[in-house]
Amino acid sequence: MSENETTYILENAPSGRAKCKKCKETIAKGELRIATNSYKEGQDIKFTSYTRPKYFTVPPRALKGVSPEEFVDIHLQDETTDTILDDPIQKAEIIAAIAFKPSKKKAGDAGPTTPLEKLLDQIKSTMDKLDDDDDEEEERPKKKAKTNKKATKKGKKEDVDLEACARAMKVYGKMKVDDLKSVVRWNLGYGTTGTKNILMLKCIDGYVNGRLGRCPTCFRGKLN
Question: Where are the extended beta strands (E) located within 69-201?
Answer without folding.
Answer: 76-78, 147-151, 157-161
